[in-house]
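Look over this today:
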Amino acid sequence: MSNPAVIHQKVMEKMESALEYLKRDLAGLRTGRASVALFDGVRVDYYGTMTPLKQVANISTPEARLITIQPWEPNLIKEIEKALAGSNLGVTPSNDGKIIRIPLPPLTEERRKELGKVCKKHGEDTKVVVRGFRRDGNEELKKLQKDAKLTEDDLRKAEADTQKLTDQYIQKVDDVVKKKEQEIMEV
C-alpha cells in the first residue's frame, strides 16, 4: 500500500535519476578542454564484440587540449581509430604504434553557440521528464484520495510538496545546463 511519503520518495528518486542522466549526457559534449567523457559513447570491435573504448584502453588527458589513448593490446590501434572515425566526434587521431594521440583544436565561436543550443535542448528535455514524474506522482496521490485513503487536505499538501520538489529539480537542471554552457564558452 502506498502513502504520500512513499510516492514522494519514488518521485524524488526518478527526478534524481533524470538529473544524473542529464549530467552524463552533457559530459559527452565537447568543451574547450580535453575530457575523457567525450569518448563514453565510443565502442570498439574487440574480437567480434562491440566494447566500450574505456574497457580496452587507458584514456588520459596529459594536457588541456590533448587526449591520449593507450590500448591494452597494441593490435587494437586500427580498430580504435576506426571506431573514432565512425563516432562523429570530429577528431583526428594519430598514432606511433603504441599510443593514439588526439589533439583538440580550439572550438570556433559558431561551434560554441551550436553546443550551447544543444545544452539547452538537453536541459528542456530533462525538464519535460521531471514534470512528467510530477504528473505521475500527483495521479497516484489522487487515486489514494479517490480510494478514501487520503483526505482532501492531505492531497493538497502532498501535491504542494511534489510541486516544491519539481521546482527544486527544475532549478538543478538549469544550474547544470548553465555550468556546462559556461564551460563551452570558455576560450
In short: The radius of gyration is 22 Å. The chain is about 55% helix and 15% strand. The mean pLDDT is 87. The first helix runs from residue 4 to 27.
